Amino acid sequence: MNTRNITVLVADDDADYLFQMKIMLENAGFKVIAADSQSQAEEIIDSVRPDLAILDLMMEKDDSGFILSYKIKKKYPDVPVILATAVSQETGISFGLDAEEDRSWIKADLYLEKGIRQDQLLMAIEKLLKK
Amino acid sequence: MNILKILVVDDEPGIRSGVARILSRFTVDYPFMDEQIGFEVLEAETGEAGLEIIEREHIDVVLLDNKLPGIQGIDLLELIKQRQPETLITMITSHASLDVAIKATSIGAYDFVPKPFTPQELKSSLENITKHLFLKRMTSKLQKEGKQIRFQFLQVLSHELKAPINAIEGYLNMLLNKQFGDNIENYAEIAQRSVERLKGMRSLIMDLLDLTRFETGKTPSTPQEIDIKALALSAIDLHKPYAIQKDVNIKLHIDCDICIFGIPDELEIIFNNLISNAVKYNKQGGNVDIHIRCDGAEVSLIFKDTGIGIAEEEMKNLFREFFRIKNAETKGIQGSGLGLSIVKKIVDLYQGTIDVASEPGTGTAFTIKLPHPVRKDNE
Q1: What residues in chain A have per-residue pLDDT under 70?
Q2: Can you tell me the distance from the alpha carbon of B324 to that of A15, in angstroms, rounded to the nearest whole number?
Q3: Residue A86 contacts B where some CB pair is shorter than 8 Å
Q4: Is A13 close to B332, i.e. CB distance below 8 A?
């Protein structure tokens, strides 16, 4: 396992999902900071600049992920943000943030469906880190 | 202003222009309608010309003369019904024979106006038609909205079911990949977590079954007199093990011995869900006090806990399906988010009320009032 000194912030209120993401990303050689709520993630970004963030959409609030993403982008404009959600249909947002107008207000670089395969997720992360 | 399109089919120009003139300044409004409704009048001299208009555009109401030069009114009526079944038709008849009237009604004429008619006769006929159309449209709109709510419910439900499946699948994959080595002991925790998620899923399914039962209005058994005290005691017994585990003390205070006429399963759900919440969201060493009070024509059931309480802004969502309060205190507490919505449905069914008072950090009290208690026969 090679450690690359890249820190990923993962925020999710599903303790099991958070635990599994942490293990998976650590196996892939990332340093992981796990936050189990929007408020905990906000505390973390006060003092730490992650290299990438993977955020759940619905935590304390239905739009916790959006708010967090906005705050991260405001403080660290270059940090890529992935919104991971199982509720794409509910939010009425189609996947992908390719449309310029979407990117301007949603402030996330990528949407991913929860339950996506590991290799797909890792590939998406690598692509964002290279940008 | 909403505009209804009226088509007058009559070979007498005087009738056509009369209708146009009367309706040009006429509007209908009812207290329950947001908007006034006005009329736009189109004219056709013959049935054939009328049919052309009907095929071209949507017409709300047709005022139809029976005696026409070509195709007769009654035959046109049938053709219009085939082409635009939504269109309402009022027959304008001079010497309407009973035969024609009966036939027209059986084909689907909505109303009759005598000929010659006074402006008032025409107006009151159109007033009725407008009201009818408005109510019909409201009903179909409400049905559509109902479907929309149903759709959202299913989406949230599929999300709630997907989350535990994802979690359990993830753990099983860890096991398959021997994530934590060969020692089976290393997997005890993820096995335990998987079991917890499955339990959560099972309780969600149980709640869903409760919910569908009320929505379909199927009653599981015949209503009967239910001894509230006995019901409360058995519900408390059911939650004792969990309460002991959480060191929560449940007490029953009852100042009247009464029965309620109802279905035992339904009243049990009220007690079970509220006691379960009162224990679940309580603090270590906390109390649950259940009061049963009689007050004339109603009985009050009060479930008071010394738990974490509910913030003001969460109150309005409390009875919403799948709503769960997410904060540091509720973290790790499993729940389907359906319990209170089910309680609310049952209370509504019994024409009762449910109120909640709460202070974050201090506790919550749910008060249910049910009408028409039956006093127990004096023994």
Answers
A1: 1-3, 86-107, 131
A2: 16
A3: yes
A4: no
